[in-house]
């Protein structure tokens, strides 16, 4: 999960074409970890929110 989050952040910062696909993969991984009880659901929501906010800012700039 951590690796996928790092990859998503790198892709978003690089403003690559695959940023959205990598973002979806990271969100899926975070959701899966939350569902299995690895991380708390609020923690998962916070991580997803921060990633999506970062993605949204990069697409607008």
Structural features, described:
- The protein has 61 residues and is mainly alpha-helical.
- The protein has one domain.
- The protein is built from three helices and no strands.
Major sheet characteristics: none
Rg measurement, Å: 11 Å
Helical amount:
over 70%
Distance between the amino and carboxyl termini: 27 Å
Which regions are unreliable across 5 or more consecutive residues at pLDDT < 50? Answer: none
In DSSP terms (H or I, runs of 4 or more residues), the helix count works out at 3
Number of strands: 0
How would you describe the shape? elongated
Summarize the structure.
With 61 residues, the chain is an all-alpha fold. Helix content is 82%, strand content 0%.
Keywords for this entry:
3 helices; elongated; mainly alpha; single chain; about 60 residues
């Amino acid at each position: 999960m951590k690796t996928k989050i790092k990859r998503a952040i790198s892709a978003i910062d690089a403003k690559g074409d695959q940023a959205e696909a990598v973002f979806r993969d990271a969100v899926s991984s975070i959701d899966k970890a939350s569902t299995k009880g690895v991380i708390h659901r609020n923690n998962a929501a916070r991580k997803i929110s921060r990633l999506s906010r970062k993605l949204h800012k990069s697409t607008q700039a």
